[in-house]
User: Fold this.
Amino acid sequence: MKRFKKVLIANRGEIALRVIRALREAGIASVAVYSEADRNSLHVRQADEAVCIGPAPAQLSYLDIPSVLSAAMQTGADAIHPGYGFLSENSAFSGAVSAAGITFIGPSPETIALLGYKATARKLAVRHNVPIVPGTKEHVGENALEEALKIGFPVMIKASAGGGGKGMRVARSESDFLKSVEMAKSEAKAAFGDDGVYVEKYVEKPRHVEIQIAADSHGNVVAFPERDCSVQRRHQKLVEESPSPAVTPEIRKNLVKAAVTLVKASGYTGVGTVEFLMDKDGNFYFMEVNTRLQVEHPVTETVSDIDLVALQLEIAQGGELGISQDRALEIRRHAIEFRINAEDPANGFAAAPGCIEEWITSGGPGVRIDTNIYQGYEIPSFYDSMIAKLIVSAPDRKAAISRGRRALMDFHISGIKTTIPFHLALLENREFAKGEADTGLIERMFQKEPAGV
Assistant:
């Protein structure tokens, strides 16, 4: 089995720092890349080496494949870890890395293309009897309205490429459908360079549940307990927890079976996530596969006591999982993750970049914080607004909520607006406390129309 000596992280911020720490524990040297705007970022300071790959705009730095590859070759990296976002689900990048004789820590280009493109992933799901929401078999063109009428309103328009809630719109009637299609296509083109969209039936008040999987090159696949990501705004997750308060042991068994079936059928290697929508009756439908590490991976790590980044490294080096399905499904704690963003909840969650004047974080039993922020750090306006992830855990959900409330109150951040006040309000919300949140909860809390309508 090969062993990496040096790994380049093709990302920034807290995820780059998370990977650097895993590499250090494994005795592997790390290489950070950074844009000119991230020169003072903590991941640059902590890496063994660091290379500037371009100006602030992501298209000229973190999304610039030749620049990333050049940094890897210049520093003699054996492998590239893509993190999440940016190039992590780009099959062309995965292929270019392999063609350069460097290991891509993730699935093959073919698998990324198969699962990362939602229309082809849906076809694969249908072939293997994984339930899907009724919709078009592939992306739509001039026949879009005709297809929508066959499905029946309301419908959801989704970008065929990419993820993260980009290129998604709800159309509740024929009158607003074509405008919604054009908006989704435009956003998808800007985000992914591909304006393909498909249409599916809109599930009213769904829950968003997902199954973390890991698969090695020896044919072994395991699934972990589900994460509930229903608390989201404009399809962007804000809170994730595991296990889901709405998932019974029988539903979990069926979710795991569906996820593992799909992963095995695709020839997947690495870690990834199979996402589902679940209605009020417990019926679930395949939504998409994220062929990378998720932002919310610490929730699963906390519940299962398994290091997913270390698992990624082991798989990429040709090793076996060494974890049984029964062990992977052990639920040892209840965990909740709060995404702390530099946003102003009172102003429509508007981005609020700026200088961190005070930065005092939480601690104590059952508290984990993943961040790259420090006092005096200037948050750039060019990238995602997330500045920290607070993960709390306890023996049960009620205790985890209490711990989350305490940990959020422990934070003292000044100089910018953050989502901490929103999270504290959420913990007082009756629907959330009872475990009844669905993807429309935040809109109801703020008495706004559902996103995309």
In short: The chain has three domains: 6-105, 134-201, 207-445.
